[in-house]
Amino acid sequence: MGICFSTKKGGGSHNNNPSATNAAVNVRKATSKPPSATRATSRKQEVSHVFQFHHRTSNNKGHVYQQPPRNSSSRRQKSGVIPYGKRTNFGYDKNFDKRYALGKLLGHGQFGYTYVATDRSTGDRVAVKKIEKNKMILPIAVEDVKREVKILKALTGHENVVHFHNAFEDENYVYIAMELCEGGELLDRILAKKDSRYSEKDAAIVVRQMLKVAAKCHLHGMVHRDMKPENFLFKSTKQDSPLKATDFGLSDFIRPGKKFQDIVGSAYYVAPEVLKRRSGPESDVWSIGVITYILLCGRRPFWDKTEDGIFKEVLRNKPDFRHKPWPSISTGAKDFVKKLLVKDPLARLTAAQALSHPWVREGGSATDIPLDISVLANMRQFVKYSRLKQIALRALATTLDQEELAVLKDQFEAIDVDKNGVITLEEMRQALAKDIPWKMKDSRVLEILQAIDSNTDGLVDFEEFVAATLHVNQMEEHNSEKWHQRSQTAFEKFDVDRDGFITPQELQMHTGLKGSINPLLEEADIDRDGKISLSEFRKLLRNASMDSSRSYSVRHRHYH
């Protein structure tokens, strides 16, 4: 039951111009009737936005629908129908009419209407979504409203999210009062540009704002799940107006345990792992990568006349960077887009990492970069690693140059609040607490710090931090040649005689450990020849990255 601030035009175009993106509608196979996708404005009325109510129902041609998880497609429908006329008490404020006066109708959908409303005490104008309780036939409709209100509450106050004022109800309706944005959709501004293209500078400004929204969502334990130009509004018609994320109707909370198994979103922006039914926060970054591609060249990276064809393109093919205008676009911009459109979600940049990329960061500062959920996950996972795996990662960390360390440097500085060059226990506790789905006890935080603190001084310096937070999958995916060089250099720190193997004696010499070294060696010694080869060493490092990814790329539906 998402809210889309929209001035959409009729869809159905079979060309690769982004204007055809307006055909994509979010729906779920969970209710009895298809959505009403009423368009109440024309191109000339962009200034006033329309809300489209996306209930999750049909699979109309040209639309992307949500397929429910396998083996559970009927689970929610079997939960029972809310009897006609029955009213649900949402627990919201009951004084809507005293607080607001409804004005101009902006649009309507399957479940209700959206109006401009005026605050009776201040005269401020807001947008109000008025949802008819009687039309919430199934429990899922009630869940959708409750979840969306909870998400809006959690994100309100962020400069790039539409501000949530309050939720109200009476006997017949639920009212959701939000910030009124009158600058039109991002899609409309793209179409207004010559060749539907943004300049690199302007594109970077737009993309930076979208990434901030994604990073904020992910730290709050949620995934937007439908990032697209139609779901971003400008606050005003000014060229420098801030961008606001809207329509959290497909958004959902994430918790450690499992990934999303349903297919949701809009065809042109859906990530490969969504189609494979194993998706998480990384899918938002993919969608932003698609939007960035469109902003820079005016075309979609994956296109076909049918949804199935689009899905095949997404799963099998790479975007085109050879044809105009890509040869004239900067290397930095192309590098940025490529790192967001990596098909392996474990090797894709996170939202916070993308904000550290030189192309999108230009004009920004390190203070603008939020904490990265994958960095926090890596720190939590590091304590679980074997001694050998920790030692190997520390060796790899010492081989990286300043350019490779730039992203982690931003993250280190974000955690090092007092800027004294080390992370204290309290700073570690504060950082880990920002990953909201995880509720960490102080004893657990101390355990993590002690595992990372290799010199046992009670503090974490930058080198120790890098060892615990490296993204090995990304290193290998983004530059395999450099990965092979770095991993070999790390290997040679142990392989003193350069015979191509790490022996028990060399490992003992490097670690200074007393007693038998064999138990330590066994984890990496796959062929059981009593020593570690370069390929076994690399596998040890890769497995570390896979372990950490499993600790945060997990999803759990949460509606309360």
Automatic annotation (TrEMBL):
User: What residues does the EF-hand domain cover?
Assistant: 403-438, 440-475, 482-517, 520-547
Q: Which domain of life is it from?
A: Eukaryota
Q: Residue ranges under compositional bias (Polar residues)?
A: 14-24
What species does this protein belong to? Cuscuta campestris
Looking up SUPFAM superfamilies in the UniProt record yields:
EF-hand, Protein kinase-like (PK-like)
Which parts of this chain are annotated as the region Disordered? 1-84
The residues the record assigns to binding ATP are: K130
PANTHER family from the entry?
A: SERINE/THREONINE-PROTEIN KINASE
In what residue span(s) does the Protein kinase domain sit?
A: 100-360
Question: Which InterPro entries does the annotation name?
Answer: CDPK_Ser/Thr_kinases, EF-hand-dom_pair, EF_Hand_1_Ca_BS, EF_hand_dom, Kinase-like_dom_sf, Prot_kinase_dom, Protein_kinase_ATP_BS, Ser/Thr_kinase_AS
Q: Where in the cell is it found?
A: Cell membrane
Provide this UniProt record's keywords sorted from A to Z: ATP-binding, Calcium, Cell membrane, Kinase, Lipoprotein, Membrane, Metal-binding, Myristate, Nucleotide-binding, Palmitate, Phosphoprotein, Repeat, Serine/threonine-protein kinase, Transferase
Topology within the bilayer: Lipid-anchor
Q: Which family does it belong to?
A: Belongs to the protein kinase superfamily. CAMK Ser/Thr protein kinase family. CaMK subfamily.
- Indicate whether Ribonucleoprotein appears among the record's keywords: no
Q: Name one GO cellular component term.
A: plasma membrane
Catalytic activity reads: L-seryl-[protein] + ATP = O-phospho-L-seryl-[protein] + ADP + H(+); L-threonyl-[protein] + ATP = O-phospho-L-threonyl-[protein] + ADP + H(+)
Protein EC: 2.7.11.1
Protein name per its UniProtKB record: non-specific serine/threonine protein kinase
A Gene Ontology molecular-function term?
A: ATP binding
